[in-house]
Amino acid sequence: MPSKPQSASAARKFVRRYLAYADPGASEDHVYAVTVVMSELVTNAVRYGTEPGDSVRITIDVTARRTRVEVHDAVRRYPRPRPESRTRERGRGLVVLNALCPGAWGVTDRPFGKAVWAEVTA
């Protein structure tokens, strides 16, 4: 996907369609959680993990027990939590990941950047 803000919306649509195909019995809560997680990962990759002209790659793996999503970008810098703020409108992505994927997300180095992954339990 191109590294543009609109890619988060495209990723959400893709995830919903893919889950309807790969796991038609998935609960709406599960689909919603996976969609939110993918959106956060793509948004962070676009904002912090790419340069102009770069792209991001998304992957999804579905099993009966969980859905794993990955977003690959070109920058090796790992995501890091920001201090709590009631006034800042951004910087809550890792809080969302911790809430929806407790202990089931991380970062893997790739030859040209990194992959941030998360697993949502079914």
UniProtKB/TrEMBL annotation:
Pfam families reported for this sequence: HATPase_c_2 (PF13581)
Keywords on record: ATP-binding, Kinase, Nucleotide-binding, Serine/threonine-protein kinase, Transferase
Domain Histidine kinase/HSP90-like ATPase, residue spans: 2-100
GO molecular-function term, one example from the UniProt record: ATP binding
PANTHER family: ANTI-SIGMA-F FACTOR RSBW, ANTI-SIGMA-F FACTOR RSBW-RELATED
Record-given protein name: ATP-binding protein
Organism of this sequence: Streptomyces solicavernae
